[in-house]
């Protein structure tokens, strides 16, 4: 029994001795790189900052902030002192000069040392400066009794005028610029048989028969498909001969461009054509523009025809109005971009009747 207990005690003591070295081996320490102090590492195994170093950094930062605050407060105090000094100085001067007359001289301001030392109340240090009177201007000299009436520079003026005239004569005179006028059509004054010329755009295609049948030798139809008013103005110079006597010119233009160009541009071309025909000795008749090209072209044609009527009256040109004849169904092509055969026949008959009335 005794031996058994002793063996058990021995086993316990051996077991206890083996546990203590294991506990001591688990404790690890590390040191700070800056202050060389020891501290326990963090649980994650990473290097942590030293608490003492962090506190030192916080103290240094706080000291720097305190220094900046002290400098700011000093600057504020200096400014307040300066303001107080100036306010005291001005108040003392205002009380001192309140009862004095304006004729007295202005005394200098006290220096800063005197104001800070409290010497403003002592009257012995103030000195009175008498006012300085301005010098009187000397009187102006009396004008002479006799004023010379002759011009001493008269000879110089004569020489200058002579030289100026010579320079003007030597300068070559500039030839005045002649404004280029619009070329006009001329016709003969000798009485002959009258010629009839009908000029227009594509709407005249097929109207030659009704127009030229009464007198094929004296009547002519010039159809220019797709031509504008300005193109017709260029063509009419070749059609009218200088030997023609009082010819009749009928213009059926503007229908091909009424749907493509603005009314302003078309009116400008009509004006240019009128300047070319004015004074030519020919009888000129403008027919109204046919509305070819849809509803927009119809509205534009109405505006142009209204203006064209007034313009022809002002410049002694004839105006032939088709009216709303071609708004009748069947006179326009199915696509609305031209006249049908019936419409072409009616247009030829209308122009032929116009020519007969003009010649008779």
UniProtKB/TrEMBL annotation:
Residues 56-96 form a coiled coil. Keywords: Coiled coil. This is SGNH hydrolase-type esterase domain-containing protein. It comes from Anas zonorhyncha.
């Amino acid at each position: 029994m005794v031996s058994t207990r002793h063996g058990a005690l021995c086993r316990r003591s051996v077991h206890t001795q083996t546990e203590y070295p294991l506990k001591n081996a688990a404790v690890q320490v590390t040191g700070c790189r800056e202050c060389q102090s020891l501290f326990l590492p963090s649980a994650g195994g990473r290097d942590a900052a030293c608490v003492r170093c962090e506190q030192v950094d916080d103290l240094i930062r706080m000291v720097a902030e305190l220094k900046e605050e002290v400098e700011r407060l000093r600057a504020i105090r200096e400014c307040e002192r300066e303001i107080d000094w100036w306010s005291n100085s001005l108040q003392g001067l205002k009380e001192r000069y309140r009862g004095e007359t304006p004729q007295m001289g202005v005394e200098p301001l006290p220096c800063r040392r005197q104001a800070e030392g409290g010497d403003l109340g002592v009257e012995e240090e103030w000195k009175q400066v008498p006012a300085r009177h301005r010098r009187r201007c000397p009187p102006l000299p009396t004008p002479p009794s006799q004023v010379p009436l002759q011009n001493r520079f008269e000879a110089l003026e004569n020489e200058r005028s002579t030289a100026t005239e010579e320079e003007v004569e030597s300068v070559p005179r500039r030839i005045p610029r002649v404004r280029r006028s619009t070329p006009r059509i001329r016709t003969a004054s000798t009485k002959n048989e009258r010629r009839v010329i009908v000029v227009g755009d594509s709407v005249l295609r097929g109207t030659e028969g009704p127009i030229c049948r009464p007198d094929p030798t004296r009547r002519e139809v010039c159809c220019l498909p797709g031509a504008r008013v300005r193109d017709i103005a260029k063509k009419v110079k070749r059609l009218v001969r200088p030997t023609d006597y009082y010819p009749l010119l009928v213009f059926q233009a503007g229908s091909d461009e009424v749907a493509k160009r603005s009314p302003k541009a078309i009116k400008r071309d009509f004006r240019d054509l009128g300047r070319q025909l004015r004074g030519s000795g020919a009888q000129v008749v403008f027919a109204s523009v046919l509305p070819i090209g849809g509803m927009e072209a119809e509205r534009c044609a109405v505006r142009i025809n209204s203006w064209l009527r007034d313009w022809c009256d002002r410049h002694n040109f004839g105006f032939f109005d088709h009216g709303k004849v071609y708004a009748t169904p069947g006179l326009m092509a199915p696509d609305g971009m031209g006249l049908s055969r019936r419409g072409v026949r009616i247009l030829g008959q209308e122009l032929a009747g116009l020519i007969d009335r003009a010649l008779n």
